[in-house]
Input
Amino acid sequence: MGELGRQARKVADGAEEATDSKPFILAARAGYVAAGLLHILIGIIAVRVAAGGSGSADQNGAMASLAGTPGGGILLWACFIGCSALALFLLSEVIFPPKRISGKDKLKFRLKDGGKAVVYAAIGIAFARYAMGGSGSSSSTQSTSAALMANPAGVALLLAVGAGIFVVAGYFIYRGATGKFEDNLNGKPSGSAGRAVTMLGTVGYVAKGIALGVLGLLLIIATVKNNPEESTGLDGALKSLQEQPFGIWILGAVALGLIAYGLYMIVRARYQRM
Output
């Protein structure tokens, strides 16, 4: 048993050393760039929709747009590698929390980074699917919602997911409004460049929070009304803003905010504490 424990410790030390290596950290930072690019493309599509054009202003639309550009396949694979590396890095942080995290903060840190690891792993899988010629659509979201709405347990799950998205939305708005998003940065540019980074983060976090809030609200409403057709994902959430007074301007503002968030994520790749 003692030998088994030593071997397990040796494997763990090797895994920790690998995830702390400079090449791996560089690949993980690329995951933030990939997420930033995704948000920029979603924002651009949403701006086009606000201006009277068409398109799917969500992850599927952004990835399809990227796949259709020259060299898009290479970019999709690069984004897959970055997101996968970032997911693995965050998972390693769950297993081996940084020394600066101690006591009761460890559980909170592990839960947060564990959730992020799942998100980036899912995004990475989506990048790989599109790189291999696959696709996605809001109809799959609707069919999943319809299946869950067919039984009480599924309804409870959808309501819980909607409420969870709403809470995350509030968290994004809070971090954007208070500047808490900068806590994860290991410094930032000085002078006007630094102020620009702060502005991008503030606007971006609030805009993403608004988009997620609408998404969560629509999911809850669709579940209560037992109407899966209203569960259309981020694309439907953004386009629903057009139906409000001054909707075009609201959608345009949120779209520009998502672009700001994407730009901030690219800057974050350089200054994120890792």
Observations:
- The first helix runs from residue 2 to 19.
- The mean pLDDT is 86.
